[in-house]
Amino acid sequence: MVRNGMIGIVIFIFTSIMLVNQAFGQDTVTRKLIPKLEYAAYTGRLIAHHADMKHLSQQPYVGNELRLGFQTTGSQYWQQLLKYPTFGVGLYSGYFNNKIIGNPMALFGFMEMPFKRFGHAALSTSWSAGCTFNINEYDSITNPLNNAIGTDLNVYIDFSLLYKQQFKNNWEWGGGIKFQHFSNGAVKYPNYGLNMVTLQATLSFMMGKPFAGFQTGSPEPIVKKYEIYVFEGVGWCGKNMAEPNVKYFNNSLSLGYNYRINQKRMIGFGADVFYNEENSENFVGREMSTQDYVSYAGFLSTDLLANKFRMSVQLGFYLYKPVDYWLPFYERVALRYYFVPWAFANVSLKAHAAKAQYVEYGIGWVF
Predict the structure, then answer these.
(1) Pairing relationship of beta strands 86-95 and 247-262 according to DSSP bridges
(2) Does residue 2 register a pLDDT over 50?
């Protein structure tokens, strides 16, 4: 675990050096991205969202992180639409004050998006996603009390609501509330996940000379109002704590239609076909056919656009399912990167009433 932490620190430092070098390669006054270094410290509690997790939340939780961000200046119109967001990479370290969970670390990417600017201050939301590691995961012999996390490597998700105020040319302080979540996406049990709510304080330093100011411009025309896409994804989920090494394969195929309602949002609908090997748990003792693994569904969606990235939120309804999920609907949250206009990479989480079913990875094509 110590080795994993050192590897994470090396990756963070190497990535930061490359990004800063690229940003400082531009003119100090007119450059498109302004490097910003930020330190955050926070304290709060692990939320015991299951009764048998209370033994994990007896002590206060403390965390801190170092972020290398890049303040956009409006050189592209999408930056103006999102009120000049900051994006970058970060390194997290947490302390739960108990040996059951340990002291996890995380590497993540983030985007901070102001929703209200006034003078030298701003109210913002910050969204982060990455990988957390260095956790003392569940082991039936060496760590049986950790009934929340069954893997050392997990998904890291972070949401913050922030107020920030500039107090010198290059300095900024801030504070707010933070929500963090660790989960392995049900790839291995246990997977209650860890949820933390904290109060945080931040201190930021903008590197280089002050820039001339945010750029403004005329709205760019919407070239394409609609799109049709096909997506295929795969994922795996675990069975249970008694058989932690058993994995089930899942495959999804989606056909969707999106309509662009403005410069930064799309709405849409579509159809899903799911193949889930875990359905075999409901047909013990008899021979299964292909149809026993397949479900059909329809969904509604909304997408937030940020340059080549999109965050898609979908609500789906089963039209046919061979097993009786306890609810007739499902949710899917996806992060997509359009590396060319007609194709995208996808990472998404499929869940039932916020309970993870599996994480899927895939690729999509746009027509």
Answers:
(1) unpaired
(2) no
Looking at residue 293, what is its pLDDT? Answer: 92
Beta-strand runs (E) in the chain: 33-47, 61-72, 86-95, 105-118, 121-133, 154-166, 171-183, 194-206, 226-238, 247-262, 265-276, 294-306, 309-320, 329-340, 343-352, 355-366
| pLDDT tens profile 176-202 | 999 999 999 989 989 999 999 999 999
Q: Does pTM top 0.90 for this prediction?
A: no
Kindly list the domain boundaries of the chain, sorted by start residue.
2-206, 226-366
pLDDT recorded at residue 21 = 52
What value does the mean pLDDT take over residues 266-276?
Answer: 97
According to CATH, what is the number of the domain 226-366? 2.40.160
User: Under a CB-based contact definition with an 8 Å cutoff, are residues 364 and 344 in contact?
Assistant: yes
* Confidence check: pLDDT of 28 > 50: no
Class of domain 2-206: mainly beta
Concatenating the DSSP letter of every residue in 58-102 gives SS-EEEEEEEEEEEE-SSSHHHHHTTS-EEEEEEEEEE-SSTTT-
**Cα–Cα dist 295/324, whole Å:** 11
CA nearest neighbour of 311 among 83, 159, 153: 159
pLDDT at 8 over 90: no
CA-closest candidate to residue 180, choices 127, 134, 136: 127
